[in-house]
User: Which sequence fits this backbone?
């Protein structure tokens, strides 16, 4: 044995066991967590760092990387999950770059987190780490699940074979975490005994070590390389892990199967949507908004602000803060009272969905619908997230494999997916019109989405990527994870939206002061009144709709509550504003992702379309009388 | 529905049937120059039947025509290999023989643990294929399942 492994033989099973004191070696300053998706990497990260974490974008990308500190000060970096260090997406590129940064750095180690039930796949990555000669500690997480399945792991044997510390943990319950921290100092380069064909090994290593992946490579190299790695990984896994009984699984597995079942999957999907609607639409947009708006703002904050400013002798600052277009009475109260409760409930629901493992199953169920629009089932993720925030969802389109799909998804998001803030307002407006009128809104929207998607899929050059999605086991979401994720998203949203709400209000205030608002309202009259049949004051709403369409929807909602709009007008206004571009931030995001030309083209397409469809809906409703009803 | 870049039959060379005499011919050949047509030198946007001389606009040179064609484009028939996973009924188990098709797709599949010698269990076929490979459950569309060539266990 060419390695003296201090840690072998000291393990007595999952958790609790203590490692023999490692031979003193410098305490690592930098720890990169690496692993397949859904192996509990984040849970281990949280357990290692406590609450000392920050989220930041990886330099030059928009991929988020979590950084935290160990109790002794070492930096821990949580990399995005990946299956192979030969990256296929930007997320994976970040992870493999992080691993490369550890190479040759004496004070840095990789902690590879693996699913204890799935040793074979994990060892594919270990083989690559061995090839890269990176100091590694292998952590077999979710050891309790493996035990429950009757999978017996020979940790000591694996340590000897790999020449690195191998530990078992249950990160969600904090078991075995202390020994991970202790084992860091004894991290080693895994023994490289992966029998790879020479040409494959050479070329793969060149790809692994290059910072910019060269485009020139042998045909099918990736697949041959993975196959060779997997073959040996399979042998190792057979030797050191006994086969489990996959029959031992109960509720989670049953539920996971039912959620994609050709028949039962649909009622489950409907139930999920119904709960989402009840929680976000009824509870968030109804109860909570009422509480915040009527309770907090109308009863207390606004009167207080008005009272406070009544001591100000000049009308200009008074109107600026508490007037009709006041920063407090309009900007803050729209942003905080109406929008905040809705997005908090939405992002909570979304985090629950994410952590339960339902979203990839939703992709399986909806694959066929999205194929109609030149996308595949994976596009459902940005679309559902778009119901929360379209700008955030525009970023998420990166999970789609081809350029064409990313572009299509962005277009559909910008066009027809209402974000939660707007959706909440729209649901509230829907409550006052007949059911048929609400259906007209929905049908118009769905028809526009599918038609535009269908046409664009055929006109845009390029191919649709193949649909392959891993279905992680269904799990009960952890409270801490859901809350912190929701908090991070809400914070992001507020930073993004609230300033724009204030800017929008300020622009309106300024235009009003300079008497330009009347000019604009008059200029917009032919379209707003002529085509859409709305009162001319609605021009002001559409004007700020260029900044944020939920802001505009809120304004229209305000108008309709005052009795200023009839049923046809409400539906026409809703359809038009839903089809608007979500917000100026979304345009910036599209420009950032796809360039200004694309962003401008999308805007030039979307705005006339929005007004055109609005006009059509008006004509349809007036001539048929459908939905106008008593 | 669009075609997937999987291994399959290469697209047949476009042939054109003359609406006048019914001759099937390949447009854009060297026939024009052979006939001594003066506009053929710079490349012209028309094609003509080598038998009867009936002249038509060359659609492959027209952006508008290509756009219309794309609108009506149909998904090609699903490429199903003999003995591919796509043909298995749900509930069956088999062993992967090899993978065939687009390199990037194969890289993705192998990274997820689907490789020769591995046992695959088909859980369902609709709305998409759902398969189990060891402890991993993967959803994939029929065209991808067709890339996985199998042999009985």
Assistant:
């Amino acid at each position: 044995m060419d390695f003296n492994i201090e840690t072998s033989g000291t393990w007595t099973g999952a958790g609790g066991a203590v490692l023999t004191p490692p031979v003193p070696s410098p305490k690592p300053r930098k720890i990169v967590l690496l692993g397949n998706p859904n192996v509990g990497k984040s849970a281990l990260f949280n357990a290692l760092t406590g609450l000392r974490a920050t989220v930041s974008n990886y330099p030059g990308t928009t991929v988020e990387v979590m950084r935290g500190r160990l109790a002794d000060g070492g930096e821990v970096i949580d990399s995005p999950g990946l299956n192979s260090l030969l990256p296929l997406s930007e997320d994976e590129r970040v992870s493999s770059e992080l691993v490369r940064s550890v190479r040759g750095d004496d004070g840095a180690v990789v902690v590879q987190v693996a699913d204890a039930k799935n040793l074979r796949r994990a060892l594919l990555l270990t083989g690559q780490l061995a090839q890269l000669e990176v100091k590694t500690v292998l952590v077999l997480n979710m050891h309790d699940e493996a035990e429950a399945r009757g999978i017996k792991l020979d940790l000591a044997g694996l340590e000897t074979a790999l020449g690195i510390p191998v530990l078992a943990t249950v990160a969600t319950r904090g078991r075995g975490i202390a020994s991970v921290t202790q084992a860091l100092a004894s991290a080693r380069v895994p023994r490289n005994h992966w029998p790879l064909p020479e040409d494959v090994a050479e070329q793969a290593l060149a790809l692994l070590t290059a910072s910019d992946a060269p485009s020139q490579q042998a045909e099918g190299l990736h697949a041959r390389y993975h196959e060779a790695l997997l073959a040996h990984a399979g042998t190792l896994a057979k030797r050191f892990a006994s086969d489990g009984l996959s029959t031992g699984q109960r509720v989670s597995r049953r539920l996971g199967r039912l959620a994609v079942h050709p028949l039962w999957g649909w009622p489950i999907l409907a139930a999920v949507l119904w709960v989402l609607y009840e929680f976000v639409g009824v509870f968030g947009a109804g109860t909570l908004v009422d509480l915040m708006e009527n309770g907090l703002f109308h009863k207390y904050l606004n009167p207080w602000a008005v009272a406070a400013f009544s001591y100000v002798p000049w009308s200009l600052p008074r109107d600026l803060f508490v007037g009709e277009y006041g920063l407090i009475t309009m900007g803050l109260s729209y942003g905080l009272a109406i929008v905040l409760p809705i997005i908090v409930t939405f992002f909570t629901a979304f985090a629950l969905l994410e952590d339960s493992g339902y979203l990839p199953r939703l992709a399986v169920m909806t694959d066929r619908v999205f194929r109609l629009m030149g996308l595949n089932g994976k596009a459902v993720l940005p679309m559902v997230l778009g119901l929360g925030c379209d700008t955030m969802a525009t970023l998420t389109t990166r999970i789609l494999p081809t350029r064409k799909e990313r572009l299509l998804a962005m277009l559909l998001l910008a066009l027809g997916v209402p974000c939660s803030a707007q959706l909440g307002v729209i649901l509230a407006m829907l409550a006052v019109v007949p059911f048929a009128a609400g259906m007209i809104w929905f049908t118009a929207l769905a028809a526009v989405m599918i038609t535009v998607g269908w046409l664009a899929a055929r006109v845009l050059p390029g191919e649709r990527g193949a649909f392959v999605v891993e279905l992680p086991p269904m799990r009960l979401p952890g409270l801490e994870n859901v809350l912190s994720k929701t908090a991070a998203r809400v914070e992001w949203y507020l930073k993004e939206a609230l300033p724009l709400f204030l800017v929008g209000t300020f622009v309106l205030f300024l235009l009003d002061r300079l008497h330009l608002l009347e000019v604009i309202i008059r200029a917009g009259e032919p379209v707003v009144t002529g085509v859409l049949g709305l009162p001319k004051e609605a021009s002001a709403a559409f004007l700020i709709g260029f900044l944020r369409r939920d802001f505009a929807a809120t304004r229209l909602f305000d108008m309709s509550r005052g009795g200023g709009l009839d049923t046809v007008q409400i539906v026409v206004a809703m359809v038009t504003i839903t089809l608007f571009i979500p917000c100026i931030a979304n345009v910036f995001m599209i420009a950032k992702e796809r360039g200004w030309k694309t962003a401008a083209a999308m805007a030039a397409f979307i705005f006339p379309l929005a007004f055109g469809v609005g006009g059509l809906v008006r004509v349809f409703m007036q001539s048929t009388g459908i939905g106008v009803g008593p | 529905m669009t075609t997937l870049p999987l291994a399959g039959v290469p697209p047949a060379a476009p042939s054109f049937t003359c609406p006048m005499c019914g001759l099937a011919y390949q447009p854009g050949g060297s026939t024009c120059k052979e006939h001594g047509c003066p506009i053929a030198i710079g490349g012209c946007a028309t094609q003509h039947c080598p038998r009867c001389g009936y002249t038509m606009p060359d659609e492959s040179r027209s952006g508008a025509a290509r756009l219309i064609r794309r609108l009506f484009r149909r998904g090609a028939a699903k490429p199903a290999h003999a003995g591919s996973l796509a043909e298995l009924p749900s509930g069956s188990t088999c062993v992967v023989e090899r993978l065939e098709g687009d390199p990037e797709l194969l890289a993705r599949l192998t990274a997820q643990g689907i490789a020769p010698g591995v046992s695959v269990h088909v859980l369902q076929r609709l709305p998409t294929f759902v398969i189990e490979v060891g402890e991993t459950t993967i959803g994939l569309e029929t065209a991808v399942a067709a890339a996985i060539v199998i042999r009985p266990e």
Observations:
- The helical segments of chain B are 31-34, 63-71, 103-111, 142-145.
